[in-house]
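Obj.: predict assembly geometry.
Materials: sequence records (below).
Method: joint structure prediction, all chains together.
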Amino acid sequence: MAEIKIREIDSKTITQTVKKLFIDANTNLGDDVVCSLQDAVGREESPLGKQVLEKIVENAQIARQEKMPICQDTGLAVVFVEIGQDVHITGGNLKDAVNEGVRQAYQEGFLRKSVCDPLTRKNTQDNTPAVIHTEIVAGDRIKIIAMPKGGGSENMSAAKMLTPAAGSEGIKKFVLETVENAGPNPCPPIMVGVGIGGSLEEACLLAKKALLRTPGEKSEDARLAQMEKELYENINNLGIGPGGLGGRITTLSVSMEMLPCHIASLPVAVNIQCHVARHKEIII
Amino acid sequence: MSKAANSPRRFDLPLTAQMISSLRAGDMVSLSGEVYTARDVAHRRLYEALSKGEKLPLDLKTATIFYAAPAPTPPGKIIGSVGPTTSYRMDAFTPALIEHGLKAMIGKGSRAPEVIEAIKKYGAVYFGAIGGIAALSAKRVAKAEIVAYEDLGPEAIRKLTIVDFPAIVINDAQGNDLYLSAREQWRIASK
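Observations (raw structure tokens):
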């Protein structure tokens, strides 16, 4: 029998990593997003829209220099954890370790605590619990992605169980309607993540994962790449523009992910991301 | 819209009825003076206090309400990052506040028809600020103090003294809506 080598990872390392990632994500907008916004400044035809985009780029620079949150809404803490199956976590469990990292980041990093009881609306005071998505993968490493997700854009997101008859036309119609209804609310220019297939919750998760892609990165599936292109054009034809004040640039990207689904169903989820598209990752 | 890139109109808060009636959707403004932050739960509390005839922690007739909840204040700063939150969540309470004297609101995003109607009927104004530029916006705040509902943490009502805070008129007292007109202006009919 082949020897299985188990790698031990201390839960404290996970906590420290999560803490670092959330502070970094909230103050240091990814270069890919900044580049996409800078590119948009050049392409925007509306003078007011251009001004809004310039302010957005300037704000990202100030936040980075002064280590201030880019946006006061420092988000619900969404965490993706890919755990190699040859890893053993020691000194505590994963969930507690992640939540402790979120707690420390939000308290020590002067990030806003934006989590509350859904009914009493009482704040949990430390931005926990995090929303944790775990996946067991091959190998002996742990990949952690921190994604602080703002409430304004999340509120404008939607999922729908379409019929198989609706097909790709139905999907495009639903995505466009969702963005049109959102209008100026989710802080455009937005990024649009679309999940197709699986079950209801799988479609939503795919939509969120689609938002982790670099703006403008096409799907490897030619059918999806085509839909992404059409939707990108049609969304930007809506005229909503930067800040919702009118213009050419309403979305920076449309990213689609897809999995097979039940013969009766066509689940579609649209996750809207504001221009403060924050996510940072580390592999331990 | 063509004048949008030009210099903004400067106003000291609170706005007078005359100032408000002169404002038009699309006007760029620069606001200085006191504003009160209030969002979801604070609005519910204000609304409930009004319904019970209780005294409010702010004078609606002179208050400018800023839909916002700042990030915590780091050492050496006046305030943490701060910017507008989406206004429609306050729409259920806003017509009542306007009816009781509220004249000016700062937020982002579209308002409900009932709010737009109340703005027109009572001569109020809704300003839009740019969302997601909160590190920059914090520089326009000269003073910040909690004045009510401290238990709400970030959602507490804070009195902020703003200086040359940039905003744009979205809904004016004439019933115009910049978000709708701007979108129509820039829309391209899709195939």
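Conclusions so far: The CA atoms of residues 112 and 181 of chain B lie 16 Å apart.
To do: check interface contacts against the pulldown list.
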